[in-house]
Amino acid sequence: MEGRKKRRRASKDGLWLRGRTWWTTIAGERVSTGCKDREAARLARARLERESADPAHAAAQRTTARNMINHVLEDRRRARGKTGGTLSPETLEIYQVKLGHVARVLGETTPLAEITHEAVGRYISQRETERVSQHTIHKELKALRFGLRLEAERGNYPHNVDHVTRTRRFAEGYKPRKRYLTWEEIPRLLMAIASPSGLASTAQAPERAQHVMWLIATAGRLRESYRAELDDHDFAKWTVLIRGSKTSDAEARIAIAPAFRPMLLLAISGRPELGPLFPHWGNVHRSLLLACKRAGIERVSPNDLRRTHASLLRQSGIALEDIREVTRHATTRMLELVYGRTNIEATTKALERVEWPALPPGKDGE
Q1: Dihedral of the CA atoms 253, 257, 259, 261 (nearest 10)?
Q2: Which DSSP string corresponds to 18-64?
Q3: Which of 281, 266, 277 is CA-nearest to residue 242?
Q4: For residues 92, 95, 100 and 102, what is the CA-based torsion angle, rounded to 10 degrees?
Q5: Do the beta carbons of residue 225 and residue 211 sit within 8 Å?
Q6: What is the domain partition of the chain in residue ranges?
């Protein structure tokens, strides 16, 4: 009859056409197979039936990459760090940035069931195309591995996490930076920065030279320099309160060695008496690069300035345990591997102090 809807004819394989796509019913719900070929639709229907019988897979279809990131951040906010305190906002931001790249490449709304070995392979290829270092990709895979394991514990991920994220099969590729400034290079860099050439304004040049002095003199991190205030500096005892937040030990009062005291005085001379000493330095890496070119020295980063302080202390014979109090690391491991660089001259001076012990009286010929 005209006006009456055409009745759908039942099929033996449970499929029917809607437009050009084959549909079916799974667990009482109408779903598209996404196939235009009937044979392919039969295979898709069989796969959907198997998946619907697996609760983990059904949950993985409902949980997206964005859900996983939110769950990771929620878990990390309550987690305890290595030193017992809660994780800092900076550490949480690291998780968010690394997993953000995964969501960007694979898609925020992608169900976790579709984050497979092949999908992660496409992600790695995309990041390599973007010229991201192998070490950075390794850290992003590590963050993804943590997120997927967290979802697997919740029953939201059905695949083998280690296989999908290439556990022990994607090399870390990490080479610690060794760059630090020597005593001779420090004034050359400061003079190059103090020159207004290449900077936005003449007024910025001395201000940024003072900023670099403060970073070298205190072994502070760039973010910590933005929190520094005049009241943090005690020139009677030659100590500085570093307002850090990366670890529970990051905020601490440190001692300043005599060699760095004149530099620290110059760094805060004329700076604001209230509030932060230094404004945000948006193009710090580019500015340092240009200054190093003018000074005729190898480029340095803000973290290399922190390494400069620790390395010069170590080369002067200061024990790693004492340097750790200045750099505020939880252990001396990072000093040994990354921050406390030594050189052949310092090693030679240290070895020259080793002499044959004097023999006790009366033991010469025995």
Answers
A1: 40
A2: ETTEEEEEETTEEEEEEESSHHHHHHHHHHHHHHHT-HHHHHHHH-B
A3: 277
A4: -170
A5: yes
A6: 15-53, 61-164, 185-350
186 Ramachandran zone, left/alpha/beta (phi>0; psi -120 to 50): alpha
Q: List the structure tokens of 47.
A: 């796969």
- For 211-223, give the DSSP string: HHHHHHHHT--HH
| Check whether domain 185-350 has CATH 3.30.360.10, yes or no | no
**Global pTM value:** 0.59
Q: Which amino acid is at 81?
A: G
Q: Return d(Cα 249, Cα 81) in angstroms, integer.
A: 11
The CATH number given to 61-164 is 1.10.150
Torsion on CA atoms 30, 35, 40, 42, rounded to nearest 10: 10
Q: Token match 């750099």: residue?
A: 327
Residues 40-94: tens digit of each pLDDT: 999 888 877 877 777 666 677 788 999 999 999 999 888 766 555 567 777 788 8
Q: Residues 241-248: what's their mean pLDDT? A: 73
